Amino acid sequence: MAKATGFKTPKGTRDVGPPDSARWQALISAFEREAQLANYGLLHTPIFEDIGVFQRIGEGTDVVQKQMWDFLDKGDRRMVLRPENTASVCRSFVQQRPIVPWKIWYQGPFFRYEEPQAGRQRQFNQLGIEVLGSSDADIDVEAIALGSRFLERIGLKRVLLLINSMGDVETRLKYAQAVQDYLRANLGDIDREDHEKIEAHPLRVLDSKRPNTRKVTAEAPRVEQFLSVEAGAHFDRVQAGLGSLGISFAIEPRLVRGLDYYTHTLFEYQSSALDTAQNALGGGGRYNGLVEELGGPDTPGIGFAMGVERILLACDAEQAFVPPDTAPVVWIIDVTDGSSARDLTHELRSTGVSADRSFDHRSMRSQMKAADRSGAAWAIIVGDQEVASGVVTLRNLRESDDQKTIERSQVVAYLVEVLSQR
Ligand code: HAM
Fold it and tell me: Which residue's CA is minimally distant from atom 17 of ligand 1?
């Protein structure tokens, strides 16, 4: 049988290996820490769901129309690789009916059938939070502040926080109608590529970055003219809260975001260190009607998601969030039959000290090279003479003349002691 060869990662996906994967993991830990500080619990949802979970997200959005990665399973059910998590979280809420407010965080892969480009993949990863069951504007502030603190803590400085309000569901519909009427009246001045959206999803035209369209949308009706007194008060409280926390933001009346479920507060974190086409590090907002649309009780919700790949691109651009040191602490150089390396690595690891070694009976020189390359701080060197006398040589690889002979039976305890004094 002929061998199949030449396999590569599917279009729009990539492998993430060391050392990038360590940085990736550290980023998730930083987010987890931030979420835990605000009492959010971790929720895992399935990678695939019934397509109906996401088709609720308004017909006409790009996610539904073109980017859904759907398939028929062996039981002829139409499933989809999850394009985002907000709808999955709401589905989970309806299924489990947890006590509110339900504050959860998540991380994991998501799938959109896109044309890949820098910062846009078919499989990408999100970090996010959702809160279900409270319409308090202070939760909006809590959510936005959590995202801002996270981006700040990982060292990003060139982040812009944009906010807007869509009002309630009724306001959104009325506003969408007014925007559509306005866009239809100015059709001739709008870039052709945006024409289709005017009928299918007029609010998304406001997000367009095409120059002619932008000239037209600059004069478009503003949502604040449509906000009810209540919605206006909610938005005022959000702004006052952010002000009180010292979080800078700008109100962007054209911020509508790509998904159709938003009501009231909308927000986006943009990086001025990235290309404008893909400069959104993350975004979110309120979605007060979504749980009900999925068959649950009337339950307000708010949350956001951030793209791991985008954040790391921004970190690269700003030279922030350096990869953590993953080097082993100790490297065992064993030029006998390898038994000491086998046993010492196990003993060290059992006491919580990371250790590694060369295999396949390499020469002393080759093992020294491997120790240097690994970035280990210490080397334990074992030769025939050492074995005969029950000792080892301990060498500090960071300080050239720091080397001593030590009892084989003492070396692990000695290293644990030295490391604990650091
Ligand atoms: P979204 O704006 O569609 O919102 O995605 C959030 C973030 O995920 C984006 O800002 C971007 O960083 C990243 N992202 C999205 N698509 C891709 C892609 N194809 N490749 C790389 N990164 C991507 C949501 O998903 C909502 N669920 C956010 C939310 C949560 N709203 C309320 N709660």
Answer: 120
CA of 63 to the centre of ligand 1 (A): 11
Report which protein residue has its CA nearest ligand 1's atom 3.
258
What residue's CA is closest to ligand 1, atom 10?
Answer: 282
pTM value surpassing 0.90: yes
Per the DSSP assignment, residues forming a β-bridge with 105 are 42, 129
Cβ–ligand 1 distance for 140 under 6 Å, the answer no
| Domain span(s) for CATH 3.40.50.800 in the chain | 330-420
Strands (E), 308-408: 330-334, 355-357, 378-382, 391-396, 403-407
What's the pLDDT at 205? Answer: 92
CA of 44 from ligand 1 middle (Å) equals: 17
pLDDT score of 74 more than 60: yes
Task: Assign domain 330-420 to its CATH architecture.
Answer: 3-Layer(aba) Sandwich (3.40)
CATH class of 20-168+228-318: alpha beta
| Confidence band, pLDDT 50/70/90 cuts, at residue 57 | low
Per-residue pLDDT for 56 more than 90? no
pLDDT at 3: 80
Q: Does residue 151 register a pLDDT over 70?
A: yes
* pLDDT at res. 418: 94
Cβ-contact 250, 144 below 8 angstroms: no
CATH 3.30.930.10 residue window(s) in the chain: 20-168+228-318
Residue 166 structure tokens: 């869509």
Q: How many CB atoms lie within 10 A of CB 360?
A: 6
pLDDT at 58 over 60: no
For ligand 1, what atom is nearest to the CA of residue 282?
10
235, 227 Cβ separation under 8 angstroms: yes
